[in-house]
Amino acid sequence: MKTLLHTCCAPCSIKCIETLREEDIEPVLFWYNPNIHPFMEYRGRKNALVEYARSADAQLILEGEYGLRGFVAELRPPYNDRCGYCYRTRLAHTARFAAEQGYESFSTTLLISPYQDHDMICEIADNAAKKHGVAFLHRDFRSRFRDGQQAARDMGLHMQKYCGCVFSEEERYRRKKKP
Questions:
Q1: Containing domain of residue 141, as a range?
Q2: What is the pLDDT of residue 78?
């Protein structure tokens, strides 16, 4: 099955790729993440993915550039749907690219994180799949999250400390503050 795997970062991709390969699916990795802030974090995640893709002998397609301004311009206060907007932006772009390039299906490494809204991701991906005429390959990779994070540490890959957007970075620091 020709599958495009939206890839948010190298650590999240490790066990997703491994799982799909165990099913005899060779995913093509797809980097499209205009949400990641700041630029140095964006570059760190992208470079780590390039490095990991080489070591894993995985094909990688890099799409788009650092997109903070465009990403934030579409958000509206009070920012309650920022995750939904983020998922829709990335998964719609992935589904459209997959359909245009003749992939049978697409999936996302976002499905490995226990910190993401799994049900919302699936609903948005299903809608994008229908709109663009390509199948959404749903897999619940969450049971392999910790193993993937440890594998990334063992490989010395860039490890992020927040989801990616400026708001998740803000939340990271707010949680650290003591009342």
A1: 3-176
A2: 74
The least confident of 70-74, 83-87, 107-111 is 70-74
- Can you give the pLDDT at residue 72? 82
Question: Looking at residue 11, which CATH number applies to its domain?
Answer: 3.40.50.620
Instruction: Say what the pLDDT of residue 162 is.
Output: 72
Angle at which helix 39-55 crosses helix 145-155, to 10 degrees, equals 90
Q: State if pTM tops 0.90.
A: yes
Q: Give the C-alpha separation, 134 to 179, whole Å.
A: 48
Q: Is 110 helix (H, G, I), strand (E, B) or coil?
A: helix
Which of these, 63, 58, 51, 50, lies nearest to 94 by C-alpha position? 63
118 CA to centre of own chain: 12
The string over 24-53, giving b where at least 16 C-beta atoms fall within 10 Å of a residue's C-beta and e elsewhere, is ebebbbbbbbbbbbeeebbebbbebbeebb
Asked if 117 contacts 17 with a C-beta cutoff of 8 angstroms, the reply is no
Q: Number of structural domains, the chain?
A: 1
